[in-house]
Each structure stands twice: as structure tokens, then as C-alpha cells.
Specification:
Shape: globular
Strand order of the largest sheet: 3-2-1-4-5-6-7-8
Oligomer: single chain
Order of helices and strands: HHEHEHHEHEHEHEEHEHHHHH
Number of helices: 14
Length: 310
């Protein structure tokens, strides 16, 4: 559960961070981008949420308003006036734009949360690099691509790093702060302090495939699927074993269905292409077959399990 006391304490963030990061630009109006914008605004910072699709921005604004309402009720459950004030002031700090170039011209921190496609990210950051002030820090919310690879086309490599949030952003407390090979100490320290200022527990990691969480989680799911593929155990028994034997809240095959088999395949395929000799990253035929059939897990109603559509 989200720790609302942390949110409340971080309305007035540390003076060091406030002086360094006053204006934040989030590129990408999907679930991750809108969540990042929300926690930034809650922390008292101005944020511009950017998406080329105005309909996406309208949907994001509505989602943020609803989420802020839930947070406000929990923080100020006995004080509806303060709850309303919190909602109004937080939402007022969020602006929207369909033009990423103009949106970064006065910003201190850019967080990219767009599609996991290296070419599209390169196109974006090339445009932003020439438009943003020299002091502006660039960060990617990528979960599977290399920070060094994304940063390769910008001049400000010392001011580039990873800020990997987890979904749903307003609830999940973890933030992976990723150092590229040329990320400066000043940039790294600023990103760490900024992460704390928006109420996150920050962990540091070098630019390794999947960082910490996904580097452990994706191979874990993949090994469970290989166990199933070999016929060593059923999907149900694998999941029950890990829940009861390891205390995990969800089994690895259930988790793969929840994450999305297409997403898991995409991550593994990218890693396998870059590290073809790493056995843990090799393709999994049983999963690839389901993806080809459009059985992607919970979101399509069927993956390794079948789900009733609500």
C-alpha cells in the first residue's frame, strides 16, 4: 500500500532538489507518463505532460484527477477541505502540450516514457537535445533498453540517466535510478534526491539489462516457462509451489500472463539479440506460439490460463 505520510512530507521537498528541479517535463501520456506527472505535481513541482495525441492527454488528465481524488481522501480523510485543496493545487501544477520541443525549453528534468523502440527514442532525444537548456537532465523510464544506447545520440551524455518507475506509479514506491557509463556524479545525485522528493524509495543500478527488478524477474518467469515446456511440472503446480514454498504473492506463470506474454517476449527478444550467448535470454517456443495466436494473457482473456472478461 502507498505510504501517504511520505507523500505528505514531500510536499515541501528538500531545498537542494527544489533549487535544482523546479520544472519537469514528462514525454508520453500513457499510464506511466501520467502517473509520473501526478507524483511530481503532488510533490509541489510544476510538470508538463506531453503527448502528440491530444485525445491521450485528455484521457490522462481525467485519470490523474480520479487518482488524485483517491489519494486526497486517504491523506485527508477527516478534512474534506484540505483534501479539495490538495487536489486543486496538485492538478493546477500539471500542464499539457502536444509539442515536445517547446515543452522542454524551460525545463530542468525531462523524463521520457514513450514506446520501447530505440529508433523512436533516438528521434525524440535528438530533437530535445538541441531545444532544452544546457543544464537540463534527460532521463528515460525504459524498463528493458540500455540507457547508454538511448543516450548515444545526445551531446549531454553526462546529464543522461534512467528513472525507472513501476506501474501504477502513484502506488508503487520503488524507483530504480540508473547510471549510464558517462552519467556524472552531479546528475546521479540530483536524480536520486529528486526521486526521494516525489516520495519514492530509490535504488541505484548500473546500466545492465533490465536493471535490478526485471533482470531478476524476467529470467525467473522464463525459467518457469521452460520448466513447463519440458513437461517437468504443470503451470498450476509451478505457480502453487512458488506461492507456498517461496511466499510469493503470485506464481511466475500467473505473473507472465499478468505482465503480458507479448511484453515478456519483447524484452527477452531484445536481450537475446544483444546477448545471443546468454542462455537465460533465449526465446521460448511455448510462449512465442501463444503470442502468435494472440493469446497474450490477462488483457486478452487467455494466455497460459483462461480469464473471464469482466
Amino acid at each position: 500500500m502507498i505510504q501517504f505520510g511520505i507523500i505528505a512530507r514531500n510536499f515541501s521537498s528538500s531545498s537542494a532538489v527544489q533549487s535544482a528541479i523546479k520544472n519537469v517535463t514528462v514525454i508520453g501520456g500513457g499510464l506511466m507518463g501520467s502517473g509520473i506527472a501526478q507524483v511530481t505535481a503532488q510533490a509541489g513541482q510544476n510538470v508538463t505532460l506531453v503527448d502528440v495525441n491530444s485525445d491521450v492527454l485528455a484521457k490522462s488528465q481525467k485519470s490523474i484527477q480520479n487518482s488524485l481524488g483517491k489519494v486526497a481522501k486517504k491523506i485527508y480523510k477527516d478534512n474534506p477541505q484540505e483534501a479539495e485543496k490538495f487536489m486543486t493545487e496538485s492538478f493546477a501544477r500539471i500542464k499539457t502540450s502536444t509539442d515536445p520541443v517547446s515543452a522542454v525549453q524551460g525545463t530542468d528534468l525531462v523524463i521520457e516514457a514513450i514506446v520501447e523502440n530505440i529508433d523512436i527514442k533516438h528521434q525524440l532525444f535528438q530533437k530535445l537535445d538541441s531545444a532544452a537548456p544546457d543544464h537540463t537532465i534527460f532521463a528515460s523510464n525504459t524498463s528493458s533498453l540500455s540507457i547508454n544506447d538511448i543516450a548515444s545520440i545526445v551531446k549531454r551524455k553526462d546529464k543522461f540517466g534512467g528513472l525507472h518507475f513501476f506501474n501504477p506509479v502513484p502506488v508503487m514506491r520503488l524507483l530504480e535510478v540508473v547510471r549510464g557509463s558517462e552519467t556524472s556524479d552531479t546528475t546521479y545525485n540530483t536524480m536520486m534526491q529528486w526521486g526521494k522528493s516525489v516520495g519514492k524509495t530509490c535504488v541505484a543500478c548500473k546500466d545492465t539489462p533490465g536493471f535490478i527488478v526485471n533482470r531478476l524477474l524476467v529470467p525467473y518467469m522464463a525459467e518457469a516457462l521452460r520448466l513447463l515446456e519440458r513437461g517437468d511440472a504443470s503451470a498450476r503446480d509451478i505457480d502453487v509451489a512458488m506461492k507456498l514454498g517461496a511466499g510469493y504473492p503470485m506464481g511466475p506463470i500467473e505473473l507472465a500472463d499478468y505482465v503480458g506474454l507479448d511484453t515478456t517476449k519483447f524484452i527477452l527478444d531484445g536481450w537475446h539479440k544483444k546477448f545471443p550467448d546468454q542462455a537465460l535470454f533465449k526465446p521460448i517456443p511455448i510462449m512465442n506460439k501463444l503470442v502468435a495466436e494472440g493469446k497474450l494473457g490477462v488483457k486478452t482473456g487467455e494466455g497460459f490460463y483462461k480469464y473471464e472478461k469482466k
